Model the fold of this input.
Amino acid sequence: MSVSYDTVVIGAGHNGLVTAAYLARAGHKVLVLEQRDVVGGAASTEEVFPGFKVDTGAHRLGGLSSTVVNDLGLARHGLELIDSEATAFVPVLGGTPLTLWRDPRKTAEAIREISATDADAWVPFTELIGKAASFLEAAWTSTPPDVTGNDLGDLFATAKLGLKLRRLGKRDMVEVMRILPMSVYELLGEWFESDLVKGAIAASAVTGLCQGPMAGGTVYTLLHHHVGAGAGVIRPTRRVRGGVGRLADALVTACKQAGAEVRTGASVESILVEGDTAVGVLVDRAEIRAQRVVSSADPRRTFFELMEPSEMTPEFARKMGNIRYRGVCAKVHLALSGLPDFTCQPGAGDHLKGVISISPSLEYVERAFDAAKYGRISQRPYLEASIPSLSDASVAPDGKHLMSILFQYAPYSLRDGAWDDAASAKLGDLAVETLAEYAPNLASLIEARHVLTPLDLKRDFGLAEGNIYHGEMTLDQLLFMRPVPGASRYRAPVKGLYLCGAGTHPGGGVTGVPGFNAAREILKD
Amino acid sequence: MSASRYDAIIVGGGHNGLVTAAYLASARKKVLVLEKRHVLGGAAVTEEINPGFKYSVCSYVVSLLRPEIIRDLELPKHGLQILPLESTFTPLPNGDYLARWGDHDQTRREIYRHSPRDADAYDDFGKLMYQLAVAVKPILAMVPPDPTSMSPKDLMGFLRLGKHFRGLGHEQFHALHKLMTMSSADYLDEWFETEALKATMSSSGIIGTFLGPRSPGTAYVLLHHYMGEIDGAMRAWGFVKGGTGSVSESIASAAREHGAEILTEAGVAQVAVKNGKATGVVLDDGREYTASVVVSGLDPKRTFLDLVDANSLPDDFVRDIERFKIRGSSGKVNLSLSELPNFTSKPGVGPLHKGAVSISPSIDYLERAYDEAKYGDFSSRPYMDIIMPSMIDAGMAPPGKHVMSIFVQYAPSDLRGGWDETKREAFGDAVVDTLAQYAPNLPEAILHRQVLTPWDIDRDMGLTDGNIFHGELSLHQLFCMRPTVGHADYTTPVRGYYQAGSGTHPGGGVTGASGRLAALKILKEAL
Amino acid sequence: MLRTTPFHSRIAPLNLAQNWRRWSGYLAASAYEFHHNREYWAIRNSAAMIDVSPLYKYGIEGPDAERLLDRVVTRDVTKCELHQVFYTPWCDDDGKVMDDGTLTRLADDSFRLTSAEPNLRWLQDNALGMNVGIRDISDDLAALALQGPNARRILHDAADGAADDLRFFRLTKGEIGGVPVEITRTGYTGDLGYEIWTDPANAEALWDGLMEAGDKHRILPAGMLALDVARVEAGLILISVDYVPAHQAVIEGRKSSPFELGLGWTVKLGGNWFVGRDALIAEKERGPEWEFRGLDVSWDSLEALYGEVGLPPQLPSEGWRTSVPVYSGNTQVGYATSGCWSPLLKKYIALAHIQSQYAGIGTNLRVEVTVEHYRKKAAARVVETQFFNPERKRSNPSVADEVPA
Done:
């Protein structure tokens, strides 16, 4: 192996590919190594069932950076985004269901059937969320400042953020500061009276989080999921035509055009460290040497599996070990012979084009979490189901439909038992049974079923504890704390080793921002 | 009656109001304190509900009564004597126990008995907490600046804060960030593995909040235990000789010595406001008093929504106060006992009876207690913090008999279906029942029982929704947000009307800090 | 609750003065009589028996045991031979001392570490990814120090000669009082001495066996006061007295590196990486700020100072553990942390942290003494920390020479 690279990127998840593309465009000789046979990582599309293009991990995008899309010409490379008019449909067992729409006024009208006060509160509420999310957005694209350092640039960056906050106006600034650490339960209590409205919003605040909506800090998570959502949009549901994996495909094309090499089926066994410097990686027992190594894997995998813990100081290893993952999500994919029919709102319709959220009340979601708290699977889970075939016929054979279900809470660490086949099947049954309460015909439509437990998410995608965000998105694991202080600026304590995955600022979701920020920092060095 | 005009009228003779009164009086101001009840102290009272047995009805320990107040007001001269609570004893369902003692090495060996690893972590943890307590202390002692204000004073305040935090250095800054944003359970998980230790430590983080120990925002109260140390007192928790009422009485005595007048059974109906300025008060019985300054020691809801005509306040402000979180989450049970509880895990009478007993065997136990409360029930197996005052101060009960103070969480103020006498007694039964699991002789030993639910605390003590801290101590209700941005500096939108209760920074507990800072602010700008 | 050591049943009746102190959560004898003098002289003149059970002990076993310890402690553990004992400190990332203790290689892949403070978490966290078992065996081992010139003779009788040829800082096994023991030639007195380790269930038998064998060699149980004088004479540092362990120091200034504690000889900068190595290399390059030194306080000076008020020197009869300022001229250049009147050397001595530029051996400094309520400065000379270092401590005379038939 005499070939040497400027940069080796571990993992062809979307963040790894974003970094690779930017570095290649800056003239680096880049090699991307992906252990799986498909690219995209946790945002892959795979033909789990013949003829069905299944988003096995993420089934919708987060606030995908438009800068990245434009810079890398992703539209040219085949990326087509679909924003459905409906964002979320929240069915009920009796009474009126609720559909949230991209247009807040339309949503307000929908809510009016449930509560007039809540209908009036809706638009101002979305405005608050929009303002707060736009403030977060400003923080997203900058490298977390070193608050205690003496670097003038850092002070400037901090001051700039402060200014941005002030520019929101006095009342809004205070409001954003006030709500960030609150529980979404408290926030929604200030705005709404209807359980259904609260349940519809609250679910979005706990996605991927081992907390219930009554826990402090869940307002932050809610806002995180609304960065880049667009004015007035609650529970943004953005898909990629052909499946979320087409994003990775477009990125690969961008990489290749810029001269980067992307190798799949190449599992990195370890990061080579000589002295205190990363000098390459070991793949299939062969060394690939490079000036620098960039890992898009999560911090645990990067530091504890690809490296020897003894290559770190004990204090750093302690901090790494303290990162909370606690995956609580499972995925269930269904190949359907037809559309499920919801009793509360029968027939097909635009309302099904967003996600279907089984979260009839905030308390329902909180109770679902209670199980996870004690290491058990929710018997009445919060589900987020997506039927992409409704807005994109290409993902399923003619006349058939595909349903992707995010199941929460399914704790990675079960207190009794393990994630064996029986538990996996049980989880699949639970998901179907729960949905079938609202759409009784569902069971009869199922042609095939595929379940990914948190353990599968770990095995298949390499996600530590099955956490879809490479570490919980909580206030203590953000900004200069992500993944840990001392490595929050995309640089590991080992020279020549960088991080670019969701475990770094600003965190999880299909956004491309960590990869973008990392590339910028690498190019600075 | 309105002949005499005062410099300041203090509404509410709770400990904070009395502190304000004493400071103002000692600055030679003419001060009148008006207390609705027949006793002073508000939530810090001692009452002989059962003849011969003295209950610290509500507050039962003092954690952080500001030493400067004790010094400035010469409270020991007025009878204040704080006796240290040396130990915390946590009985466990498996028949074992965890004890923490006054002596560091002894405590460490006890922790070592449960986990040698935790014994190692204990000192590192203590060091960090101590450092962070030092870092936080100046904040507790300052009048919070207004983040929306462009006044040089407020900007300087934030600049000073910024400098202060930057000065901490990486490690401490990050540790503080974690402490402020994490759950106490997660924070302690990073250090310890002994469930009883984590649960007992984290219990301080849930007191006064409506959160479970696994909810973010509960970790920072862990610092409280270390705050005492940097004030020169080796241990943070103490029991006041004569019961907590003695704190109030000693402060009242100091205030009187400086000339303050104190009236009991003088409930204030309304603060009189003329042209946007407070001019005095009107009592329930129609009496009127005028003053240059009116100070409320009551909680923000009562201070603004009850005492003042809403028309005198800006709408935004009223909305802020309306959504100020003040859910009550705790109750109190006071017992007269014929004998001391005999704990199965440590039979007999021993030093443990002179300290606190904590029913907090595991984080899960606390979480389960919380689970019931969040859906509107009281905990059937609650968290309890217990002391037996008669073991420290013999005067609290007749010879050979004892009193027991039990702080109980969770008891939601908005109990499903509302509180009534039956539910109150059911709540009392749950407490006794739970305790009996650890000390089976307890039920038989009970001579008298007083149960206080948030409903009673609201009604009897005048604490809205029975919240013992005048408002939840959650992150978004601290410092410059307590009770609301723009008026976290003890002022109100009404000129001449001030707030001095626990609903202001730093709030919570029998500290007197709010009352003192309010007095200093008033002296500086109004009198 | 109050903890007592496995020897308590024997110690308690002998502690005539009922003079106890706390040691790491245990009850420990300060002195058995009203004055510790006889116990001190037993250490220096015959033999003393000191209960050292409150030490923390760890058993470290497995293929990576050596690797782990080599990573944690400052010494080169690869050089530790079978049944050899190393004295060593260990540091945090910043090269500041956290604790010190002894490390014994019991087998190729098995070690025992003793320490003053709990260290399990630190060891475990350093062992991440290693194939090694770490057991806290503090409660599984009772320990007794047998110290003094007659120690070898007593052991010869008590352990049937098992330790006759035991070299300095080595371990052997044997039987005392009918119970199996491990014997290391180690101690905290700077004299000929041994430490004997056994199962707590055998503690009383061990005690009785030694007392019986020691009787004719004038063995005495000794407490902490006598030990304190002996260890100052020997220049041995004491945690939380002469240095603050790094993980307890609330401010940086309280921490010390091994170089600043006179333990530079334990730091192997050439070998494998260990925790704190980078910081220590940097410190070595720029030279440590502080040195740890002995101070030999001038008797003439003391006589002169006390003479001014018409008194002969009045020196404390016990060792002291307070911080005492040390001056060069009138500028404070350091502080002494332990000191005592040495009954053997007839000197007033102290162990002190001195700023490096004033720490040259032979430098004349001044140390604060309180003479009849007034603070004065007595002349003192900077010396090596080992005030007393007898040949017998490490020598290996043949048994025939040592033990009369």
Observations:
- Chain A has a mean pLDDT of 94.
- Chain A touches chain B through 36 residues (CB under 8 Å).
